[in-house]
Structure formats: structure tokens, C-alpha cells
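Weekly modeling sync, notes
Attendees: AB, CL, MP (scribe)

Item 1: holo prediction request
CL wants a bound-state model with flavin-adenine dinucleotide before deciding which constructs to order. AB pointed out that an apo prediction alone won't tell us much about the pocket. Agreed to run with the ligand included and paste results into these notes for async review.

Input as submitted:
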Amino acid sequence: MKYSKYSVVIVGSGAAGLYTALKISEQIRLPEGILLISKSALGESNSRYAQGGIVGVVHQNPDDNADLHVKDTIKAGAGLCDEETAEYIAKASDEVINDLITTGVEFDKDENGELTFTLEAAHSVRRILHSGGDATGKGITDALVRAVQNDKNITVMENTMAVEVLVTADKICEGAILFNKLTGEHEIVYTSALVLATGGAAQVYKYTTNPNGATGDGIALAYEAGAIIQDMEFMQFHPTALAISPDSKYRFLISEAVRGEGAKLVNSKGEEFMSRYSDKRELAPRDVVTRAIFNEMQNENMPNVYLNAGVIGEEKLAVRFPTISRICSRNGIDISTKPIPVAPASHYTMGGIRAEVDGKTSIAGLYAIGEVASTGLHGANRLASNSLLECVVCAYELADYLSFTNLDSPEKIDEGIKKMIDVYSRSISGDSYNVDELKSKLKNIMWNNVGIIRSEQKLLEAQKEIEILKSEFKRRRKCLNQGEYEYRNMLIVSSLIVESALSRKESRGAHYREDYPDTLPTALHSNIVRDDDKELAYVK
Ligand SMILES: Cc1cc2nc3c(=O)[nH]c(=O)nc-3n(C[C@H](O)[C@H](O)[C@H](O)COP(=O)(O)OP(=O)(O)OC[C@H]3O[C@@H](n4cnc5c(N)ncnc54)[C@H](O)[C@@H]3O)c2cc1C
């Protein structure tokens, strides 16, 4: 098999991966260079589709400060946020957001040239920066992609997927196996710093706002390598995704910022219902709004509720929400006059690879940045627009950490790693699986049994059905194509979600159990490490 060596290898080209590459290149002179790989085209990612914005606790906003932001984050996180992490990220926000501006990100400004801030659910002040109205993700990724393309220290490999983390018996990461989806070939890359920036896993559910690539690859790879995986039961279901028909599985997001600007939720009788669920009404935390909508849909036996955005006014809608206006209009809805049909959809993976603010995981040499990581910032329920901020602040910190780290490659290849590589150099027999059909079966199981409202009985049902799917899919390691690799990873991630959800016998944030509706007095993280008896540990 072909092999190469780089000082740092970054997997993923969303906000986290792109910014990590740029900051490392800026801070460190590396003898063997930086490799950035992406299974998609450069920049194609969840980040690109982010609408509402990015939290900016910046000196340009006199109404805000880090303490206020930390308070809001912790309140939304339902007892499970890591306070130190939240403080760190809030305090770093000013420097990092202004660095993004220097890198070329253009946030929207008012007629006086001052940054404009919007409000989103559960934020106590207007602090969300946006770009292109409701195309913040595109604004950020386009600027970062341009900078990466102009950076001679960064080698980019598109259409290339990481499929295995190479780790020694002493839990030291020494590289990865890559799969080139265009040639169908595997290759090895050795490195002393492997950064997973592969995003979340919301694609394991039938209805999702996430693009196809969000199959939880990094979480599955790190789990297989023996890393600690944290809080996987906390999947955020966004309350308002465009629900044109029950058959449309990809659900275009109707950003929280639309409710922030005054839009109201109504049921099919035209009644505004949010006051029955929270005194914060439309701006209650996401899990509260999601369950309220789900409840209304079940009571009325309807596939959706509606969002009335007409109150915002035609002119403002066109300026603030051009993308949402255009997509709805393409579906026959003029949002200034007609209610938008909306329903919840899986949206954000709060759990992931347990990591510190600088990306360190429980495996030496393996780092996790962005949605793939679980740093404790989001707790049991992510505060809107905190995720993009987490991506860039953690990338910044990782570059800083690596600048003090020895990045020399090991002298010789570990024996255990040689064996792992051997698996990928052998050919495999048999036809490829119909992965679209298999993915769809798995996504139905997850939506119907491990969704917004959970119970022991449904979770056990899911556990049984996933075990059957696993036994029918014979590929544990090497696969024939990208679809098979993604399905292999989705099975692993789905099991992690089910096991964690079964073990959490309480309701907290995004994890709601109808058989355990109360929240326990002590908030504990769930931690899973791969071992033979598959034990799940709960720790503070
Ligand atoms: C529709 C939508 C709207 C959102 N709006 C907001 C918002 O307004 N504000 C906010 O803060 N957050 C928002 N979010 C969440 C936010 O966009 C994400 O949490 C964040 O962008 C994650 O960035 P990331 O770099 O960690 O991952 P991603 O942006 O998902 O990037 C992951 C990258 O990894 C690549 N990849 C994955 N697996 C592999 C593999 N095995 N090998 C190689 N490459 C791989 C992918 O191709 C992709 O390039 C939104 C999310 C969605 C889906």
C-alpha cells in the first residue's frame, strides 16, 4: 500500500478542520507539513449550511460580556456543562472572532458600518453575528477555504476518507488508513498528530437537517481505537425544520433566528401554543420547543405545525432571511404571507469524543475538534450558535498546544499497527451491499425508537434491531466503498446512542425518557470505552 508521512494530519474540512489547518500553519514550522483530508470537496460540510450565526462575545458589543454568555450556556445545558470550558470559550471569543474577520470573514454590518447582532433562543442579549443574512456558514467556510488554498504549507486531499485510526497497544495514535473514493484505493498516512474534525452524526436519524456526510465517522473511528466517547444520548433535535411532506427526509432548517425576530408557532387550528409550555414561549431552549411541537403534532395527529413569519414584515424577511425565503418560495410558500410547515429533525450531536478545549483526547496523538468532540461546552442541550464558536476557539487552542509539542515521527513502525495495516492490504470477497436501503432501515429504527421521546421498551427494541442489522452486515474493518464505510460507522454510532440512552435513567436536556421524566439531583456524564465487556461508566 502507498504511504506518506506528515507532521499533522487533519480529517475534515468544515469550520473546525479548515481553521485548525490555518492556525497550525501560521504558528508552527513543520518539517513534514500539514495534510488536510476531506471525504467531500473542500469546505463541503455542516458548517457550510449554518444559517443563524456564530456567538460573538466581542468588544464591539457593549451590551454583552463573557459572564452573561457563560450563564446562558450553563442554563441551557441542564446541569451538564463544564463550567471551566464554557468560561474559556466565552473569554477567547473576542480574539478568535476578530481573527476570523482578519482572515476574511465578512459579518453583516449596519448602515454605519457597525457589526449587527441578532437574538436566538435562550440568549439573554443580542450576540449572534451573521453573514449574508442567513448564510453565515457559507460566509465563514468560503473565507477559510480561500485562505487554505493560498497556504503553501497545507496539502489538501479531497474525496478521501479516513477509515481507521492507527493506534498502538499503549494507546498512542500513529496515523490513519485512508480510502480514496475515486480510485477505490487504500493508503496509509503516518503522523504524530491526527486531528479528527469530522463533524456530527445526525444522519443516523430518518429526518435530519444535516447533509449526507454527517455519519459520525470520527466518533466511530475513535471508539474503535479505544478513545473515551462521552454523552452520546444527547442528540439535539431542532424544533423547526421545513416539513413539506412526511416523505421529504432531508429537512431544510428554518433558523432559530426567525423566531428570534418575532415569528410565532401555531398548530393546525391556528392557535399559538408555546405559552402553554414555557413563559419564554418561542425562545425557550431548543429541547423545550421541540417537545412542545412534538406534543402538538401527536395531539392533533398532524405531521407538522406552522411558523408564522409574516409578523417580521416582507422587507426585513428579504434582507435577514434571503436563503430561507428563497427555499420556501421554491416550495410554493411566500413566507411573508403564508405559514411555514415545520417539524423537528435531528440536528446536532452534543456527545462525541471526550476532549479538552485544545482537542486532546484519551489517546495520545489523537485530537478532536468541533462537533465530533464532546468538550462539555454544550452539556445536555446546546445553546444556539455556540457550536461554530466552539469549532474556532478549540482549533485556535490546539494550534497553540501543538506549537509546544514534539511532532517528530516514531523511528520504526509498531508491530500492532503493522497487523492493522495488513487487514487493509488484503482483498475482500463478495458483492457490495445495498447501503442506501440499509441506511434507511437503520434511520427508521433510530427515529421511531431513539428519538425525541424515549422509553426502556423502545430502546430495547432498537438495540435488538440494530444487533440484527450488525449481524447481517459482514464488514467490520475493510469495506468496498464510501457508502459501506459510512454504514459501518453509523451502526457503531447508533449503538453508542442506544447504550447511553438506556443507561441514563432520567430526563435531562435533549434526552427525554417518558418512563423516567424527572431529572436526577446529580448531573453525571456518560462515558463509553470500547472493551470486551462493553461497560458504560458514569462520571462527573
Ligand atoms: C443546517 C444547519 C444549520 C446550522 N446552523 C448553525 C448556526 O447558525 N450556528 C452554529 O453555531 N451552528 C450551526 N449549526 C451547527 C454547526 O454548523 C456545526 O456544528 C459545525 O459546523 C460543525 O463543524 P465541524 O467542522 O465540526 O464539522 P462539519 O462542518 O460537519 O465538517 C465535517 C467535515 O469532515 C468531513 N468528514 C467527515 N467524515 C470524514 C471522514 N471519515 N474522512 C474524511 N473527511 C470526513 C466532512 O466531509 C466535512 O468536510 C448548523 C448545522 C446545520 C446542519
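Recorded for review: The domain at 434-539 is CATH 1.20.58.100 (Methane Monooxygenase Hydroxylase; Chain G, domain 1).
Action items: CL to compare against the apo run; MP to circulate these notes.
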